[in-house]
Amino acid sequence: MTPAIELQGISKAFGPVQANKDIALKVLPGTIHGIIGENGAGKSTLMSILYGFYRADAGEIRIHGTPVTLNDSQAAIAAGIGMVFQHFKLVENFSVLENVILGAEDGRLLRPSLAKARKELRALAHDYGLNVDPDACIEDLGVGFQQRVEILKALYRKADILILDEPTGVLTPAEADQLFRILRRLRDEGKTIILITHKLREIMEITDTVSVMRRGEMTATLPTAQTNPEDLAQRMVGRKVLLRVDKAPAQPGATVLEINGLCLRDATGVARLKSVSLTVRAGEILGIAGVAGNGQSELLQVLGGMRPAQGQMRLNGKPVDIASPRADARTRRALGIGHVPEDRQREGLIMQFSAWENSVFGYHHDSGWQRYGLMQNAAIRDAATAQMHRFDVRPPNPALEARHFSGGNQQKLVVAREIERRPDLLLIGQPTRGVDIGAIEFIHQQIMALRDQGTAILLVSVELDEILSLSDRIAVMFDGQIMGERPATDTDERELGLLMAGVAPAGGA
Amino acid sequence: MGKMPNWADAVLVPIISLLLAALLSALVILAIGEDPLAALQLMVKGALGSSYGWGYTLYYTTNFIFTGLAVAVAFHARLFNIGGEGQAMLGGLGVALACLYIPWPHWALALLGATATAAVLGALWALLPAYLQARRGSHIVITTIMFNFIASALLNYLLVNVMRPKGSMDPATAKFPEPTHLPTLHDMLAPLGIAFSKSAPANISLVIAVLACAAVWVLIWRTRLGYEIRAFGHSEPAAHYAGINATRITVITMLISGGLAGMMAINTTMGEAERLVLNSVEGAGFIGIAVALMGRSHPAGVLLAALLFGFLYQGGAELALWTNIPRELIVVIQALVILFTGALDNMVRMPLERLFTPRKPGIKKG
Fold it and tell me: How far apart are CA A478 and CA A195, in angstroms?
């Protein structure tokens, strides 16, 4: 059978960085082909070449056997390639129909195009189970539906090869299941699908064939049925990886954090936190699960002193001022609260600062780093060097600016800084977002070690796997509320998924 | 992506920018029928060829160091202070008040006192824009430039109606008393046996300016405040995460910036004019922006850039004096230098960067 896509000898360099090295790939028509690899392995570059965003330095692309030159996305669309990006490219205040025809209008007048698209959309909905109200405004649609619009856009442009880049990152487990159902149906109707992901579970669940990328090279392509998650992880990282965290049972001590009736409204008056109450004890990890945007970020910001809120907060039994604007992140740190923020590049690090300057960021007031009113830069640099060795930050060069480290090493810089202060309470947001598997393993171990030393840990993550494997107790947030709380040993993905979708369990939370 | 070695970034880029500006200036001079080479010679000779020329060049340099540092400090907090002009005017008022109303026993004390009052008034003139930016979100570019006009009107009023000596037709204060007169470079170098022009205005303020460079360097790279200023300038969300108070940093940075701009007055008002005149700043506040841009907000860079602009000012004045090249053309040349070294910086940097990255076949922008 002629492959739907055949790549031969694709290479692409950005300056000194070889993003793709002599890549060969064959994707058979009517299959779902997974591409897995760590951040920076070259997946996105390869797909950008396939979608005409970059031109390869060398190599050949064949679509259904015909060699093609893809100079821009128009050429890719003409060749029947459609792309669904991780961050949707939709006009928020346009209707579904208007978004679908955007850029594919037939003439100067919109009406005929809209009428044609309406008919087409109805047919597509019928053929693939892609039901979306064509007149709904994008901003009123849930994330799962917005993604369907992206898929419809591609299909409307007669794509028969569909590339999806990390499609489940923003979805609830239920929405992801629906997406997979649609993808299977598309495949059964003869479409070819390329799924880019870093989630091993998704590869195992839905793909027919899987290709592994590592450091710009395609290291393996094999039928999914002949592999398993451990094998894939090993191929991705190049060494054996522990996928599950070694976890001794927690030995919770006294209550460290207690919050009661926490309420927060944003600048536009929308309630972001609706009377949130929870406790975290010493030596345990409370995981907060939930789809992104349901108040978890705000909860971390309030606890970390980054925005004032209403309600009570107690730390080690003592009330903490959270309402006045003077209650800032600095006073919170002085109380013994560490904070690994959700977005390390925006908040956790100053990207233009060197690693050693970042190693005291937020703690630069500490008396140990000051003398005669001057920063003790030499001492800070020495401490940072030692810390980078302990946390295996690569390269171990304290003078390197934070932006020149990879995502995983940037995160290690932040985690090292916050963990080594031995806080009473550690707030962690998305500890492994955009972090490669090897670093994930290491960061998870560090978090567990800190727990075992008696720190109370509040963990927020949109990765359900991460919540399940690290937490001792799990609370689920939906629409600014805690939907329910479960011991980690006594729940599963199904139950949490329902809570994440806002379905209150029978018997109440 | 590729990165240039630091020396290329710090030295090569400004030099090439400068050469481009010079080339274009030469074309303009050619176009009005003058000889660019002769013009250049005249500029060099006029600005650097005698101790008289040096005296003026260094005098201007002193002004530009102060205003350049003022803009540079604000840049580190990502604040664009274009109110140096007004802040320097208020600095002049501070110098005048100190010199006229306090009986100083010695010029050294007078210098300390006048520096302090100049800095305080300059800082206060930056306080309101800083506060409005921090608490009300009024953009500091708009407010500082407005404050330039207010300062100008204020000084106009004070000099015409309040501080002008009775019977004088000149909108200026009385001459400062003798003990406040600062030693010029001639006075300072004579004991060392170095002959320096008596009539050139460069004075001991130059030393203060160089000390200010060192102080700013310590502030920015060695103190906690400098750390916080830079952190705030690079990323406001991150500064917030670290518990750095945005209002505090904005206000303090602008106070320092305004203070530095105000200190310029010890050179012009105390050192040269020895009285406060109208329009004593003469655009140095704006030149400070170009100086800070070209000097990459680094005190050493500011020092060098200030020297360059001091040369352009003095050389330009000579050119207007001795040739048919009109005074306006000097402004054109200065503008070209500002354009190339400041605004079009990246035009030179990007091709250079590409030159320094090891070439791979078919490098292409994304």
Answer: 28
Q: For A133-228, where are the alpha helices, taking DSSP H only?
A: 143-156, 173-188, 200-206
Q: What is the dihedral of CA A349, A350, A354, A358, to 10 degrees?
A: -50
Instruction: Indicate whether A137 and A167 sit together in one domain.
Output: yes
Claim to verify: residue A386 and residue A331 sit in the same structural domain: no
Give the Å distances, CA to CA, from A457 to A273, A339, A471, B62: 20, 10, 9, 56
Give the pLDDT confidence score for residue A311 in this predicted structure.
95
Is B231–A374 a contact, with Cβ atoms under 8 angstroms apart?
A: no
Does residue B231 lie within any of the structural domains? Answer: yes
* pLDDT, position A308: 93
What integer is the mean pLDDT of A415-429? 95
- Whether residue A325 lies within 8 A of chain B, CB to CB, comes out as no
Query: Would you say B236 and B246 are in contact if contact means Cβ atoms under 8 Å apart?
Result: yes
User: Does B234 touch chain A if contact means CB atoms closer than 8 Å?
Assistant: yes
> Is residue B331 assigned to a domain?
no
Contact (Cβ atoms closer than 8 angstroms) between residue B269 and residue B184: no
The CATH number of residue A232's host domain is 3.40.50.300
B2–A15 C-beta distance less than 8 A: yes
d(CA A355, CA A240): 29
Q: Which of B242, B302, B274, B250 is nearest to B14 (CA)?
A: B302
> In terms of pLDDT, which residue wins out, A309 or A201?
A309
How far apart are alpha carbons A475 and A496 in whole angstroms?
A: 9
Structural domain including A329 reads: 251-336+424-443+451-504
Separation of CA B245 from chain center: 28
Which one of B78, B229, B235, B297 would you mutate to disrupt binding with A, by most A Cβ within 10 Å of its Cβ?
A: B235
pLDDT tens across B152-192, in order?
999 999 999 999 998 888 999 999 999 999 999 999 999 99
Alpha-carbon distance B158 to nearest alpha carbon in chain A (angstroms): 40
In a domain, B253, yes or no: yes
B19 found inside a domain: no
| Of residues B1, B2, B235, nearest to A350 (C-beta) | B235
Domains of chain B: total: 1
Q: Which of chain A's residues have a Cβ under 8 Å away from the Cβ of B361?
A: 57-58
Interface pTM (ipTM) of the complex?
0.85
A95 and A35, same structural domain? yes
State what percent of residues in chain B have pLDDT above 70.
95
Residue B365: pLDDT over 60: no
Which H or E element spans position A221?
strand A217-223
A104 and A181 together in one domain: yes
Q: Which residue of B has its CA nearest to A351?
A: B234
Nearest chain A Cα distance for residue B133, angstroms: 18
Contact B241 A13 (CB under 8 A): no
- Put simply, the answer to whether B244 touches A330 (Cβ < 8 Å) is yes
Q: Which two tokens stand for residue A95?
A: 């209707």
Q: What percent of chain B has pLDDT over 90?
A: 69
The answer to whether B128 and B146 are in contact (CB under 8 A) is no
- Domain encompassing residue B122: 63-293
Q: Are A200 and A207 in contact (CB under 8 A)?
A: no
Partner residue opposite A350 with nearest CB, options B238, B243, B360: B238
- pLDDT tens string B303-344: 999 999 999 989 988 888 888 888 777 788 878 888 887 666
